[in-house]
Amino acid sequence: MVWxxxxxxxxLRSVLLCSATFLIISWxxxxxxxxxxxxWSVPILGSxxxxxxxxxxxxxxxxxxxxxxxxxxxxxxxxxxxxYNAVVLNTHEAIKEAFQNPLLNDRPSNKLxxxxxxxxxxxxxxxxxxxxxxxxxxxxxxxxxxxxxEEQISLETKALLxxxxxxxxxxxxxxxxxxxxxxxxxxx
Length: 188
Description:
By secondary structure, the chain is mainly alpha-helical.
């Protein structure tokens, strides 16, 4: 008896309609207002339908697709894919200006980094700045950026090219040779 009374008011169609309305309203309220303009997006999928439609309407490489989007929205635009917002910088000048801004000299926080002790791979904020400074000063002490380091890289590059020439037209996996060349540079 009670179930019939409830089923009259809560049929499947009304539940789905309420759920869809709730998702759309929560998606609209969650969207940050300080993002640059960008293609339209839908809840959950974000701008992915727009990108797929644009890709298949005029097949082109992804970087050319971004150039086409930049013509419409400007050289700095935003995308939302699966709930993650991204800002795309589409010119060298925009990238250079962004990386000179001290507010952008940090890594974004990630879910994995919040759960483990900060290290080189997951550091952000002040610890990232300290580790970056330490790493760069240590590498400079080992000769990175100095003329002797360039000479060592040139020698290893020549040796790598000689090894590749020995293989002639035979297919091979270059990973072993490249890893050895990089290891030799580091060890030198």
